[in-house]
Amino acid sequence: xxxxxxxxxxxxxxxxxxxxxxxxxxxxxxxxxxxxxxxxxxxxxxxxxxxxxxxxxxxxxxxxxxxxxxxxxxxxxxxxxxxxxxxxxxxxxxxxxxxxxxxxxxxxxxxxxxxxxxxxxxxxxxxxxxxxxxxxxxxxxxxxxxxxxxxxxxxxxxxxxxxxxxxxxxxxxxxxxxxxxxxxxxxxxxxxxxxxxxxxxxxxxxxxxxxxxxxxxxxxxxxxxxxxxxxxxxxxxxxxxxxxxxxxxxxxxxxxxxxxxxxxxxxxxxxxxxxxxxxxxxxxxxxxxxxxxxxxxxxxxxxxxxxxxxxxxxxxxxxxxxxxxxxxxxxxxxxxxxxxxxxxxxxxxxxxxxxxxxxxxxxxxxxxxxxxxxxxxxxxxxxxxxxxxxxxxxxxxxxxxxxxxxxxxxxxxxxxxxxxxxxxxxxxxxxxxxxxxxxxxxxxxxxxxxxxxxxxxxxxxxxxxxxxxxxxxxxxxxxxxxxxxxxxxxxxxxxxxxxxxxxxxxxxxxxxxxxxxxxxxxxxxxxxxxxxxxxxxxxxxxxxxxxxxxxxxxxxxxxxxxxxxxxxxxxxxxxxxxxxxxxxxxxxxxxxxxxxxxxxxxxxxxxxxxxxxxxxxxxxxxxxxxxxxxxxxxxxxxxxxxxx
Amino acid sequence: xxxxxxxxxxxxxxxxxxxxxxxxxxxxxxxxxxxxxxxxxxxxxxxxxxxxxxxxxxxxxxxxxxxxxxxxxxxxxxxxxxxxxxxxxxxxxxxxxxxxxxxxxxxxxxxxxxxxxxxxxxxxxxxxxxxxxxxxxxxxxxxxxxxxxxxxxxxxxxxxxxxxxxxxxxxxxxxxxxxxxxxxxxxxxxxxxxxxxxxxxxxxxxxxxxxxxxxxxxxxxxxxxxxxxxxxxxxxxxxxxxxxxxxxxxxxxxxxxxxxxxxxxxxxxxxx
Lengths: 644, 272
Prior knowledge:
The complex is a heterodimer. Chain A is of the alpha/beta class. In chain A, the strands form 6 sheets. Chain A has a 5-stranded mixed beta sheet. Chain B is built from 7 helices and 11 strands. Chain B has helices at about 25-30, 90-105, 110-120, 140-150, 180-185, 220-235, 240-255, and strands at about 10-15, 15-20, 55-60, 70-75, 85, 155-160, 165, 190-195, 200, 205-210, 215-220. In chain B, strands 2-1-5-3-4 form a 5-stranded mixed beta sheet, with helices on one face. In chain B, strands 8-9-10-11 form a 4-stranded antiparallel beta sheet. A two-stranded antiparallel ribbon of chain B has the order 6-7. In chain B, α2 (about 90-105) runs antiparallel to α3 (about 110-120). The longest helix of chain B is centred in the middle third of the chain and has 17 residues, at about 90-105. The radius of gyration of chain B is 21 Å and the shape is globular. Chain B starts with 8 loop residues before the first strand and ends in a 19-residue tail after the last helix.
């Protein structure tokens, strides 16, 4: 963990020497097996796979020793952070070939060791299968899977590559080269210059230039500057920051250390969401190791620099992801945003100058210092440089974690990387930017994703959640869902957000219950406008986006709900009835499953649903093997599944 | 770079009037005496600006902006700047105040203050779903902030979002000074000021102390003790100073109500 003799690294030279030594040792390794230990894969048994794998390797070694032979191959195994393709987990990869195994079970490890590692053969059933639109077939290496080949990983560069609990591993993958370069060869001014030139914009949502933020903090002549890393990722369906903190905590810390060097900060906080225990564990482990290694604490690498990093766990409030609310929360007060006439870089935490950046932003910094501002600025678009990580979720085939250069179209992200919609159903909308983001329709699929294009289209970049929806999604219901989420998360300080959300939910609820009145849409639009312009913080200002964007692009659905009592997606329970069509062969399965005994009918005869007793739970539809149950709305069938 | 001259005042226009104002002041603070009326419920001269009610919104334009571009800001939280143009009663301003009042009328249908203010902006009946309540609290947090300023912190806002409410979690901290009730813009805190030498507020009963010579009610026992302690902490121990400190806290407590809420001359009403 520390330099070879167990003492802290006293100088930059020692650190680099150590890195070189590890690299030399690593060169002897022929193959490396990486078991994905993201939370998704852990839930599916990744830890057991790793244990079993170690056992297999041990057994193999013993066998060879017993036979008096030397190991002809040198192997190593490790648990890494999230590989991204969570839907195919647990994932095991073998380097340097890039062999990619999906859905691995502990019992498969024997085969992997015996066949792949010792005989260079592939275990066919574990290989990734391409979809039929890509001609089916199995893929050996992850580089050939569109999900990976179309990505460009900067913030996620080491997630899924390094063992997050192993400092040596991080060094071997080029870790701390950037920090060493910054502290040994660059002045703080140079560092800020590079960050500013790279065009890096805050990845937390607002997209403010990181370099400019740092420079303005430098201008404030105060003794103490606080550095805060915002890891309070609260958006439903977003997990980019979590994956980085869990899978690559050292890069987050390296970014913060470079920032602290540039700003002269001596104290730093990482504010981590309460629901991320693994992230806290890995970050704390990393902080402890760095402190022991003399990379944190006092007199870092003998340069006289001081930096203490502490972790604070959020209390579970979404609004604490907002910077001023976060600082109040860190001070031990109720997390409520405050007015922005006082800038955080002048008066932030404890009324002292504070620089707050998001996890992903800090993680990009070492890459910029290492490879240069020009390299970073060469990716992306004119006003949004670099790459952006997204969590791709919803009705998309490959749910998971991805990173692409700015300017990729939504179509490329959803259909090429994401593999399209589940069951090849029609695409309806994609919701970007978390709960207060907007829904974009199929007509916007060619939109090149960056901070400004998304904002112009009525959505936003946010922290990078992307929820894909198919035609079985009711847009009014979606808007209602997000408003309901925000009601629970609004701090309640200002009237437009607190009361506006409450009334917005009431109006949407009436519409989905078929109690909407003409004029409701206009009331909603007036209300949304005031919320947007008159709320105190960004949560309230962007809270109406799910409603305004769905009204903008799916107005006819709202009108159908209000005027005709029709839910075309067959979702809103009060607007739909279940009906058994003539294809029913009287198998009685639905009748037996109905919780309210609403279905009557004799064996081998047509069954009937009593609409007065039916509670639209949908159980009958899910148990019917002959697909004879339709959802009707406004006298029309809205749900009959097209049999491909 | 040449040194920029730092002046202590800035020049701006408010509804076309040229105004000179001290640097760092908020727009709302410089409007008195100009004949413009900006409604506000959560602002109080003795407390830090807060920005909860959003009624004091105004439109602004900074020098150098396109002619058509204006921004809506809350005047209680926006500092005056050189060359700033402010509109306090434009269509956009009125429209947004109207929506805010409409929302408040739905939240506290029983409040006369909100109803009167709503009527001024043409809202006679709320467009939204009325909450079935007799409560008139609008969560402006004035009581919470005032109690903090006095040094008691007895009142706190609890929960969040639409479920937010104001309560006294620590009843022992309340000294029955009535500051909260008297500053409340919507008279939402019920109290009995003097009932045969007893005072009741926040479900707690206090004994009142009366000046023996004049017969004047000085306050509750706890209040007198608080003033004494505060004076002691500040090293103000002579009787004359005690009197001053007492008068100061008392003045704070009986600070004039916000102008639009009630006439200053009127005696403070007792609620319930």
